[in-house]
Amino acid sequence: MHIAQQELAKQKGENENLQATLLNLLNELAYLKINNENRETKLIIADVEIEYQNEEKGKLLAKLGVAKIELAFQGAQKENQVQDLSNMNYARKLIEASLDPLITISTEGKIMDVNEAMVKVTGVNRERLKGTDFKGYFTDPEMASRIYKEVFSQGFVADYPLTIIDGKLTDVLFNGSVYKDEDGNVLGAVIVARDMTEQKRIEKELTAAKVFAELATVIAEDAKNQAESAAHLSEDSVRSKQQFLSNMSHEIRTPMNAIIGFTKVLLKTKLSAKQKEYLTAIKISGDSLIVLINDILDLAKVDAGKMTFEETPFRLASSLSSMLHLFESKIQEKNLTLEVVYDSKIPEVLVGDPVRLHQIILNLVSNAIKFTAKGNIKVSVGLVSENEETATIEFAVMDTGIGIDAEKIETIFDNFQQASSSTARLYGGTGLGLAIVKQLVGKQNGTIQVKSEVNKGSTFSFALTFLKSKIKPASLPEILSMDYEIKDIKVLVVEDMPLNQLLMKTLLDDFGFEQDIADNGKIAIEKLKSQSYDIILMDLQMPEMNGFETTEHIRNTLKSQIPIIALSADVTTADVAKCKAVGMDDYIAKPVDERILYSKIIGLVKKTKYNKQREDGKNESIQLEKLKYINLDYLVKRTKANPVLMMQMIAIYLEQTPPLVLAMKQSLHDEDWELLEAAVHKIIPSFLIMGINEDFEMMARKVHEYAISREQTEIMHDLVLQIEMVCISACSELEEELKRIKNTKL
User: Fold this and answer.
1) Fewest CB atoms within 10 A around its CB: which of 11, 72, 336, 617?
2) pLDDT over threshold 90, residue 385
3) 266 contacts 279 by C-beta, under 8 angstroms
4) Tens digit of pLDDT for each residue in 254-277?
5) In Å, how far from its chain's centre is CA 241?
6) What domain count does the chain have?
7) What is the pTM (predicted TM-score) of this model?
8) Are 77 and 70 in contact (CB under 8 A)?
9) Domain range for 712
10) pLDDT tens readout for residues 137-171
11) Phi/psi class of residue 716: alpha, beta or left (left: φ > 0; alpha: ψ in -120 to 50)?
12) For the domain that residue 154 is a member of, what is the CATH number?
C-alpha cells in the first residue's frame, strides 16, 4: 500500500510537475501566440510596406524610364544640333568656296545671308547686308526685283543679266532657285551671280576678231580677185606671147625649111666652085637663123614656165661622146685640140634629162670654140659626191680664148648680152646662149660659175644631181646611112604648102621612094580609102582638116594602123605627147634633116612589116621595141625595186583606171561636171606614179579646170579622147610589165 501510496505520491508529484510544465507550456504558447500575433502584425505591416515600396519602386522605375527617354532624346537633340552645326559649317564652306557672289533671300526680297564674295563685291559686311533689300545693290533695281519674284513664281531663274554696284560696276549673270522645308514650304531662294567681265572681254575680242576676219576675208577676196585678174592677164599675155612665137616660128620655119632643104639638095648636085661656095653660105646662114629661132623659143619657154625636164635613164659617157663628135670638123677647121677628161667613178646609168644637158654643154662648147683662135678646149666631167640614190656630177668647159673682163662677168648671163659690142661684131651671135644655159642649170637646182682672164681663157662650170638607176636606158634612134637599095616604099605626104610639097617630093625621090601628095586631111582620107601606102608624113597645121583630126579619123574610123610621122614647123604647139595621144608614131621638126627623115621612115616601115609577120605567125623570134607611154623609174624608186610592191601598185592601177575612164567619158556626155571633176581628179596622180608623160597630166589638169569652171567645153571632148587613149595604152603596157615582173620574180 505504502508503495502504492508512494507510487501515487510519486505520480502526484509527477502530475504536479507535469501540470507546472503544461502551465509553463501554456504560458509559453500564450507568449508565442502573442509574439506570433505581433509578428503577423509586423508581417502585415511589412507586406504593406513592401507593397508600398514596390509601388514606389515601380513609380521610380517609371520615372527612370522617362528619364532615360528624356536623356536619349536630349542626346539625339544634341547630336542633331552637332550635325546641324557640322552641316552648317560644311554648307558655309561650300558657299564661301564659290568665287561668285552668293545670296539667300526671303520671299519678301530681303537678304538673309551672303558669302564673302558678295561682301567683297559690294564692300558691305555680312551683318549690314542681312535684312536689307536685294534689289538695292544693282544698277537696275526694278530688274533685280523682277529676278527674285521670278525665282519664287517659277522656282528658278537662269542667266539673268544684272550689274552690281561696286567700284567698277561688275556685269553678272544670275542663276537662282528656291529652297523648301520638309513639308515643301518655300523658305527662301539662293541666287548666284557669275562675273561676266572676262567673258564680255573675250566676246568683245571675238567680235573684233570676227570683224577683222571678215574684213581680212574681204581684203583677201579682193586680193584673190586681183590676183586672179592679174593671173588671167598674165596668162593671156603669156598665151599671146606664145601664140606670137608660135606663129613666128611657123612663118619663119616654113620658108626656111624650103630654103635649107633645097640648098642641101642642090649641094648634092654637080656644081661649080662658086655655086658651091654660094650655096654653102646660104646653108650656113639658114642654119644660123634656125639656131636663133630655137634660142628665142627656148628662152620664151623658160620665161613662160613651159620648159619641162624629163626623168629618163641614160648613159652619160656615151651620150657625151656622141655629142662632142658634132664639133670635130669645126675644131679641126680652127686647128684646135679637144681634150675630154671623164671620171671613171661616175655611175654608168643616170636618170635625168639628157637633151637639156646636151643643150647646156653644146652652148658652152660652141662658145668656147667660137671665142678661141688657138690652143685647146677641155671638157671635164667629175664625180663630186654620191650616195645610194643620187650622184652629183660637175661639168666644166675650159678654153684658151679671148676671156672676159671681170666687170662683164656678172652680165654675160643676161638676155642678149655679150662681153662687149665688138664681140658681137667680130664673132656674131645674139647673146642668148649663156642666158639659156643659166636658166636650164637653175631649173635643175644647179648654179653655173665662170672664171676668166682676158686673153688667157675662160672656164664655165656647173654641178647637177642625178638619180642613179640600174635600168637599161632606151637606145637612141639610129641615124641610118642612105641605103638606096631599099626602094619599095610608098609614102603619102599630107602637106598644104606647095613649096614644102616640092621639097618632100624631091627628098623622097632622092631616097628612091614612091610618093603621093594630099593638100589637106580630107583629101588624104579619100586617098587612103582607094589606095595603099606604107607610111604617111603628116603636117599638123592645115586647112579643112588638120593633122590631129586626120590622124584620129584614120585610127578610129578607118581603123588603120599605118605608120604616121608628124611634120611641123611650129615647135611650141606641135606637142609630141599630143601627137602620140592621137595615134601618131613619131615626130620630126622642120627644117627636116634628110638623114633623120630617112631613118625614121625605114625604121617604122620595117617595124610595121615585122609586126605583120609576127601576127601571121612568121619570124616569131623578131623582137621589136615600141613606143611606150609608161616609164616605171619613179615606181622603181618609190618601191625600192620591190617586185611585190610594184605588182601591187600596177594591179591597183589596172583595176581602178578603166572604170575612171568610163566615168570620165560618161560624165562628159551627160555634162555631169561634178562627176567629171571627181573622175579626172582621181586619174591625175597615177600619171606620175606610172611615169606617164607630164604633158598628158597637163591635159588631164586642163579637163579638171574646165570641169570646175564649166568653160572650154568645146575642146574638152578632144582632151578626154586623148586621155582615154593614153590610159588604155598605159594599161596595155602595164599588163605586159606585170607579166614580166611575175616571170622575173619566179
Assistant:
1) 617
2) yes
3) yes
4) 677 677 777 877 877 887 877 777
5) 33
6) 5
7) 0.41
8) no
9) 633-745
10) 777 788 877 777 877 777 777 777 777 776 667 77
11) alpha
12) 3.30.450.20
